[in-house]
Amino acid sequence: MTSSTPRRTAPSRPVVLVVAPNDELYRGYCLTSVAAAYDTVVITPAALTWEKDLVVDHEVADPYDIEALLAAGEALAARQPISAVLTWNEMLLVNTAVLAQHLQVATDSPDILHGCRDKATSRELLDLHRVPSAKSMKVANLLEAALAAEFIGYPVVVKPAGQAGSVGVIKVDRAEELPAGFEFATEGASLWSGESKAVLVEEYLDGEEISVECVTHRGVTTPVAVTRKQLAFAPYFEEVGHTVDAADPLLRRVGPIAQAAVAALGLTTGIQHVEMRLTATGPRIIEVNGRIGGDLIGKLVLLATGIDLPRAAATLALGRQPDLTPTRRQAAGIALLYPEISGTLVERGIDPEFFDDTDWLEQASWILSPGDQVTLPPEGDVDVARVGLYVVTGYDAPQVEDRIAETARHTTVTVQPAARTEGTA
User: What is the pTM (predicted TM-score) of this model?
Assistant: First the structure.
């Protein structure tokens, strides 16, 4: 563990500790927002890079090692009067709650966050409180998976119980596909820092996938936005785009279900990203994530409504009621750029005149560079499958969709496959 030299010993604003603020592309806006309102300190697994100008102090420690994380927190607390602890990293929700308790600042208990992280526990709690969800059975081997699938009825979804970001999640339509699907989910369960190696077999929920972005203070949950999702690469569940419309009438319909799901899991504070599907029998919960949604969803909410979810997360961690007054009424969307084939990226770009002259193109960022290998799902994850992304705004969701399509017409992504024949998306 290493530390920096603190730049301020008597802060005039509350000090907020952020655990593992992650990468600048997807989470830079979160740390920027928090740092604009509060003195911010961080614990990072490596030396500071992009975070350096946003924080007043930091420690370097492995946040997945709870003893190292607590030691880093203690070191920061010895130099700074820490008033709040938070993370937007799904895999670190439980460890962050442990650290918050250790530093005696506001948090939901680690057990509650574990129940949110572990999908088997979440299903049990949702069922107990009669929140519409999916039939689900935890299985230990392929035989149990086959029995569960026959009981639930095909098609089913096979997934890890403790992962995030659709890792290891696959739709299985027929019994003969189950062995490969179970192997895929089992391998996903063992990746990175999944808290559970268990695998679930669940009812497939047919219908549009959405998420409800929620803010909870002292047990009262306020749904603030609906995110409409675009999925691809079936039978996998890869998210390739999101749209938020401040005037989306669906919020009134699905908001109460999201509130019930948050309450069922016992969450009393923080931001929740509640995923559900709009089935023929009504909205049903996929899962509840106890953090700001990924893929710049918090930025879309800000652009569409003016509600700043990262700022709200820090304010909630201080035990205060955040300001959730909408100051905008428009729509925003993100397109995550996947090519049509795997191979070597040879060209990518957006027409410079279009980029310079288009005020509704809020952001365009590249993830991969020419010469990098692109590997699409299921072999590749988002780090090697996405070439870039862009964010647009508009009056409403249809205009955002039109502008995403227009931007695509000005965007070039060319991949050369191993066979040496070019393919362009």
Answer: 0.92
